[in-house]
Specification:
With 341 residues, the chain is α/β, with parallel strands linked by helices. The protein has a single domain (14-325), classed as Arginase, Chain A (3-Layer(aba) Sandwich), CATH 3.40.800.10. 41% of the residues lie in helices and 14% in strands. The chain has twelve helices and eight strands. It has helices spanning 2-18, 46-52, 55-61, 89-108, 123-133, 163-167, 203-212, 219-225, 227-239, 273-286, 305-322, 329-338; strands at residues 26-32, 65-71, 112-117, 138-142, 193-198, 215-218, 246-251, 289-295. An eight-stranded parallel sheet has the order 2-1-3-8-7-4-5-6, sandwiched between helices. Helix 9 runs parallel beside helix 10 (273-286). The protein is globular. The N and C termini lie far apart (45 Å).
Length: 341
Amino acid sequence: MAVRGSMSRLFRSVHRSCCPQSRALSVAIVGAPFSKGQKRRGVEHGPKAIRDAGLVERLANLENAVHDFGDLNFQQLEEDKHFMHVPFPRTVGRANQILSDAVSRAVGAGHTTVMLGGDHSLAIGSVGGHAHQRPDLCLIWVDAHADINTPMTSPSGNLHGQPVAFMLKELQDKMPEVPGFSWMKPCLTARDLVYIGLRDVDPGEHVILKTLGIQSFSMRDIDRMGMQRVMEVTLDHLLARKQRPIHLSFDIDAFDPALAPATGTPVNGGLTYREGIYITEEIHNTGLLSAMDLVEVNPTLGANAEAVEATAGLAVDVIASSLGQTRGDNTVLQDTEQLGL
């Protein structure tokens, strides 16, 4: 274990020297105002709430070239009958196909791509489109939930609890042919995925995680190990054999509800602000972040305007720290101004 830790620190040190934090990025923002992957309305307003909280200005202030491509247009399909107990399968499938094409174009054009959700079913299209351009990508999934149910194991049938099952090659013999998803091909193996922040995992998901040996860190693991060690193991697991693009899929409900109250499936005992931002800072420090999702901000579920503003502002902080903002920036700026530099 000591040798593994030493290798991790060496890898991270070398990587930071090769990929300085100050490197300006070309960032594409793609809004995905969509809610049919679950039953609560309002999450389709998440992209607007995050933009209104100052996302574009924050990223531009980091000297990134920011290209906001606006929101995609999704339509609910007529005659979209349930499949098993899965609601709106064709509508969700079509929305994800549209998103996949948009993310593929943005990544192919050389942009670090930020997808603003919408519910987490959208990761099917976001990761799928990313993989079309970067088939060797790895995935870091930060969430209170594993979202790896299949239509057979899902208690609710909601597709925002099933996106990872569509991605994994090992689960394809367990997945029925869900209408609307014939375009989606599995793009990851279990080895390419790490979960951080889990604390509400369904029984069928527990079986899948254990059977496939997927690397995951629950909140208990984070309490026991500390976030620094969790990130060392995560990056070793995904990157030690070779450097490759990272896709970060961040559900705002990974945070404790006291910090992110305006979301549809809050679970007590989540990440602190410092833990969540440490994750994104460490991912940025690799220099390998290629695309990310920020999902499940629901402005209609906040108890008041302050709760909505806090949740959307936290989403902006997560995205900005993934793309270069550090918690020392303000101090450095003040010191240089005082010195007249």
